[in-house]
Specification:
By secondary structure, the protein is of the alpha/beta class. 38% of the residues lie in helices and 19% in strands. It has a five-stranded parallel sheet with strand order 3-2-6-1-7, with helices on both faces. It has a five-stranded mixed sheet with strand order 8-9-12-10-11, sandwiched between helices. A two-stranded antiparallel sheet has the order 4-5.
């Protein structure tokens, strides 16, 4: 392994270096001649496998290794090369399979061994997906990489719920905010600016902090009557939508047992949801046809 890579993982914990050493031993035992590979940071979209891009499919079919996250629809993995190695590196609330530095080290190691690696992320890798951190880690040790954008849940999930994030007569802008900031740093969210900016607010990863989010927006001056919605498991059959207002949506989410993953949308565009709902009807129709087909 190169000096640059060894320097990168020097400060990782023992589990990380054990992972690297295991990979090295396996490869050298096979007498493989390692050459520099490449990493593709690929967005898998919000859940519906049909929203996967053509380039993402091509990358999966060429991959030697696929490192995938918790929220990836497993049907997407079926597009991968039949001999690909799958490595789960998912993170859940309070439960991380691997630390981010370990994930970075694995990406580097597999690429250094001449492998084509797909780092498969939900949504878009550069929208709260830590893709920037992984790209910088690769760049630091001169590993070639490409970014393959994915459809972000920030726009796709509201769309599947019948909520356009912009509308000419209602909202001329939308703002995407993380509901889960780095716990090791002070918050950088400007609540007063969000309350005053107008348009649509979309919060990702905000279920557990929804009460805090609505309280801060209300304290910053956003009307408690502002329409709000929370959408659980958007774009797949299990999608659930709850609508209310800034003042009520947190309590409604608890009452309806809304869980992660979910998207929060705040703004006047939520009022269009009842008229523009389409996905549930499509899903119900498909399920009915499947049942009828089974009776034949």
């Amino acid at each position: 392994m190169s000096i640059a890579i060894r320097e990168y993982i020097h400060n990782l914990d023992k589990n990380s270096t054990d992972i690297i050493d295991t990979i090295d031993n396996d490869v050298f035992a096979d007498n493989r001649q390692a050459s520099r590979g490449k990493v593709y940071l690929v967005g898998a979209g919000p859940g519906d496998p049909e929203l996967l891009t053509l380039k993402a499919v091509r990358c999966l079919r060429q991959a030697d290794v696929v490192m995938y996250d918790r929220l990836i629809n497993t049907a997407i993995l079926e597009e991968a090369h039949p001999n690909a190695e799958f490595i789960f590196v998912g993170k859940g609330p309070g439960c991380h399979t691997m630390k981010q530095k370990q994930i970075n080290a694995l990406l580097i190691t597999h690429a250094q061994l001449g492998r084509t690696v797909v780092r498969l992320k939900g949504g878009d890798p550069f929208v709260f997906g830590r893709g920037g951190e992984e790209a910088l880690a690769l760049q630091a040790v001169d590993i070639p990489f490409e970014i393959v954008p994915g459809i972000s849940s920030a726009i796709a999930v509201p769309a599947y719920a019948g909520i356009p994030v912009t509308h000419r007569e209602v909202a001329s802008s939308f703002t995407v905010v993380t509901g889960h900031e780095d716990p090791h740093h002070a918050s950088t969210v400007n609540w007063e600016a969000l309350a005053a900016i107008g348009g649509t607010l979309v919060f990702l990863m905000g279920v557990t902090k929804l009460s805090y989010i609505t309280q801060r927006l209300s304290e910053a001056g956003l009307s408690p009557d502002t329409p709000a919605a929370i959408i659980q498991q958007g774009t797949v059959d299990q999608q659930r939508v709850v609508t209310g207002s800034l003042a009520t949506i947190a309590e409604q989410a608890v009452r309806e047992h809304i869980l992660s993953p979910a998207i929060v949308v705040i703004g006047a565009v939520v009022n269009l949801q009842a008229a523009l709902t389409w996905f549930e009807a499509t899903t119900n129709s498909a399920n009915t046809q499947e049942l009828q087909g089974g009776k034949r």
